[in-house]
Amino acid sequence: MEKTWFLYLTAVSFAHCFFACLAMNGPNSTTDQSALLAFKSHITFNHSHHILANNWTSATSVCDWIGVYCGKRHRRVTALNLANMGLGGTIPPHIGNLSFLSYFNITSNTFHGHLPDELARLRRLNAVDFGDNNFGGGVPSWFGNLPKLQYLRLANNSFTGSVPPSTGNISTLESLNLRFNFLEGRVPEEIGHLSKLKTLRMGYNNLLGSIPPTIFNISSLELIDFTYSMMSGSLPQDMCVFHPKLEILRLSGNEFDGQIPSTLGECRELQIISLSSNKFSGFIPKAIGNLTLLQILYLGDNNFEGKIPQELGSLHSLEMLGMESTNITGLIPSFIFNISSLKGLGLHTNNLFGSLPRDMCSHHSSLQMIYLGNNKLTGNIPRAIRNCTLLSIFYIEGNNLTGNRSTSQTLVVDATSKDVWIKIQKFELNLDEFGQRDQTTRPI
Question: Which of these, 154, 139, 147, 105, lies nearest to 122 by C-alpha position?
Answer without folding.
Answer: 147
